[in-house]
Amino acid sequence: MTDDNRVVERSGWAPVRHFAERSVLGLFVVAAIGLTFGVLLLLVRFHWQPLQDLDRAVADGLNRWASGSDAVVAVLQQVSSFGGRGVLVPLVVLLAALLLVRRRPRPAIYLLVTGAGALILDPSLKALIGRLRPVVEVPVASAPGNSFPSGHALGSMVVYGMIVLVLLPAVRRRWRPWFIGLAAVLVAAVGFTRIALGVHFLSDVLGGWMLGLAWISVTAYAFRIWRREAGRPTPPITAGLEPESGHDLRPAPAEGAVLPHPWAKGAEILVGWVFVFGLLYLTGYTVTRWTPAFDEAVPAWLQSFRTPSLDHLSWMWSKAGDTHAILIISLIFCPIALALWRQWRPVLFLALTMIGELTLFLCAAAAVDRPRPPVEQLDGQMPTSSFPSGHIAATMCLWAVIAIIVMARVRRPWRWILPALAVIMPLGVALSRMYRGMHHPTDFLGAMLLTAAWITVLWWTVRPNAHAETATEAAEEAAQAIDGRHLETVG
């Protein structure tokens, strides 16, 4: 090392030099990506014949392959949905909310700004280019708007790319290549499905990928400049956007074993499941062979109040207990609970409750095989029998478990809303299901029996609130530590 270099090192200019070198390299990469996208855009805009021939050949070949099987089309559509706005927008909003809960506002802002930019870029360029969608021999899917660039390819590249940048510090070093690879495979799969479904050309997908990569590169560079101006170090991008946030982003860094003696606990849960199933089967067998008089009278009486307005209202209440609604609420609550209390145990409690409810309902319904009430059924033919009610049982289990978890960890007055919802939501769903002619009152009784027995089994085996106070104190201490570090930085 020369004397001049030693002076530079001592004067503290080495970090600046390293930052400048990385910045120049980053700008070169971004410029190369942007230039490639610009060339592709011009080729598409001016209808370059070799590119059009390639697009047509790929679209026709994949269409012949996909259109030969309904199962293949269904799988392609399911994978494609992971690049749609219905998945990406809630995912970004939820992750930003979790970052705010963990006191990490900078990456939360990065997610929201970068995601909003992608939402603007997609329709703007489509309107500017005005390329029509492919016309294939056997259409298996359709999509609105113009074709170039692919919004699914652009959105998946941006969202999953920036999620990798944000969450990378929380992933152990040996798992980071797998984490990045998983995101890359998902982005590639979404792009492939858009071509195979016949709604985009190959060049549309390539354009979406390049534009998305250029956009997250620009915003990541801007984020690094922001850190630099705030007096924070700027390590290589391979360490993530905020390497120091790794501890705060890990789901439960201080939690020990989620369940001690997991094999013994698993055996206890299995035995409890068998016991609950037996109880449901015995009850279902009884009410099917000796039906109480009110069991058919109540649905018939409710049918006399039917009006178009009440039909619509009952449909909405019924939807609150279907699989999609229950799954969405569970997928929202579990990450928030994990971010707030840094414990896997309540999440496991909710997951086991809902899995057990679903399997108990399906097995009991198949074993009992009870007919639906002898009235007009507004929902038509259902794939399962009447006892017990799956809608009511799922709603009961979900809101009861949420109330159990929150009541033990929150001391605010608003917590009493959760027990109220645990009563109101199932009652509304039960009334709507009987009004629509889909269930007897004793089916409601079966749902109550399933909920009470199954949650009791899991309460004694999982012990979801065993360390509730410890988790709350740990979250408060972590928040105080983050505030302390922030004050030291400002000072």
TrEMBL record:
Gene3D superfamilies: Phosphatidic acid phosphatase type 2/haloperoxidase (1.20.144.10). It is an enzyme of class 3 (hydrolase). The chain crosses the membrane at residues 24-48, 82-101, 108-129, 149-171, 178-199, 205-223, 269-287, 323-341, 348-368, 388-407, 414-432, 444-462. GO terms for molecular function: undecaprenyl-diphosphatase activity. It comes from the Bacteria. Residues 108-220, 347-459 form the Phosphatidic acid phosphatase type 2/haloperoxidase domain. Pfam families: PAP2. InterPro entries: PAP2/HPO, PAP2/HPO_sf. Keywords: Hydrolase, Membrane, Transmembrane, Transmembrane helix. Its EC number is 3.6.1.27. SUPFAM superfamilies: Acid phosphatase/Vanadium-dependent haloperoxidase. This is Undecaprenyl-diphosphatase. The lineage of its organism: Bacteria, Bacillati, Actinomycetota, Actinomycetes, Micromonosporales.
